[in-house]
Amino acid sequence: MHIAIVGNIGAGKTTLANKLAHHFNWEVFLEDVDHNPYLKDFYDDMPRWAFHLQVYFLNSRFHQTQRIKELQLAGKGVIQDRTIYEDAHIFAANLHQSGLMAERDYQNYLSLFNSMISMVNPPDLLLYLRADLPKLVSQIDKRNRDYENNIKIDYLKHLNEHYEEWISGYKHGKLLIVDVNNLDYVNQPEDLSVIIDKINSTLFGLF
Ligand SMILES: Nc1ncnc2c1ncn2[C@@H]1O[C@H](COP(=O)(O)OP(=O)(O)O)[C@@H](O)[C@H]1O
Ligand SMILES: Nc1ncnc2c1ncn2[C@H]1C[C@H](O)[C@@H](COP(=O)(O)O)O1
């Protein structure tokens, strides 16, 4: 079983991924953020570093998908924090549309993505955490990563628009949309139970 958690920056993916992995006793796959050699430079100068960062994320996410395949073959359950689909359909697409990634770099990137994607298995369940801008901003603030301090509201807004468009056309498998605006699964265990019940119902037809 493979559940992938998707959603905008600060939506609560990592927090939920850890809690679900603990609950189901499955492996958790998180994003490579702390050792990412481009992320800080990217936030300082997006046009300069957009392509480098996208290639880095694409490669690290591809390795993750291959490792997830191995674990699934070994009969293990997996929770994944963010997918390779989001790199291309959300982040790279947004950078290109916003004029922050040059046409030739975007086409080069897409060609690489298309070569890789045929080797990627979609998750059994895609869990989309839908959050409005105030929730995203307050949670990004709460996390307090230096380089995310200057993220513009417009950047988050455009990412949210890309998410809504991508999710509305998602056909790779089961999809569960959870509005997290009024959920606090950090401090309220019952909010976590609501999500777990929804997952069980969508995946296994329980409840
Ligand atoms: N539903 C929630 N309610 C309250 N706080 C949350 C919730 N989800 C996440 N947080 C807090 O918001 C911050 C960002 O969450 P995080 O899981 O890192 O988001 P993401 O991985 O989607 O970027 C963390 O400090 C986390 O404790
Ligand atoms: N593909 C990506 N392009 C640009 N930025 C990305 C990409 N994937 C992740 N990020 C950024 C967004 C955040 O600053 C960090 C971690 O993501 P988070 O949603 O907070 O887990 O990396």
Automatic annotation (TrEMBL):
Keywords: Kinase, Transferase. It holds the Pfam family dNK. InterPro entries: DCK/DGK, Deoxyribonucleoside_kinase, DNK_dom, P-loop_NTPase. The keyword Kinase applies. One of its GO terms (molecular function) is kinase activity. SUPFAM superfamilies: P-loop containing nucleoside triphosphate hydrolases. Residues 3-201 form the Deoxynucleoside kinase domain. The keyword Iron-sulfur does not apply. Coiled coil: none annotated. This is Deoxynucleoside kinase.
